[in-house]
Amino acid sequence: MLFAVNVTAVLPATPSNLGVFQATCVAVLAGGYGISSADALGFGIILQAVEIATAVVMGAPALVGEGLSFKDMRLRALHQTPVELRPVSAEADAA
């Protein structure tokens, strides 16, 4: 099922593949494994919520570690400028 979901993620249908993700879960679980459509849809919703929550929980500390805020991310997205990382000095590496 994860293979099928990742293959459908290539198609930029909706933001975050909302709907496409769940439809793929229903198609694979109901069609291939005989699970009811309602249970497969529920699984798809919960699975996508867990994936998004994991990305936020793991991504927020990474942003803080790079010295970026959500405001910086928003401004960069609006202006479509690449992120420039500041060089790490040798003194910081020794600490």
Task: Provide structural commentary.
This protein is mainly alpha-helical and 95 residues long. Helices cover 68% and strands 0% of the residues. It contains 5 helices and no strands. Helix 2 crosses helix 3. It is elongated. The mean pLDDT is 82.
Q: N-to-C terminal Cα separation, in Å? A: 46 Å
Share in helix? 55-70%
Q: How many H/I helices?
A: 5
User: Biggest β-sheet: count, sense, barrel?
Assistant: none
Low-confidence parts lasting 5 or more residues at pLDDT below 50?
Answer: none
Beta-strand segment tally: 0
How much strand content do the residues show?
Answer: under 5%
Helix and strand content put the structural class at mainly alpha
Oligomer: single chain
Topology pattern, helix = H, strand = E: HHHHH
What's the SSE blueprint?
Elements: H1 2-8, H2 20-33, H3 37-65, H4 70-79, H5 90-94
Helix pairs in contact: 1-2, 2-3
Features:
about 100 residues; mainly alpha; 5 helices
Give a brief outline of the structure.
The chain has 95 residues and is mainly α. It has helices at residues 2-8, 20-33, 37-65, 70-79, 90-94.
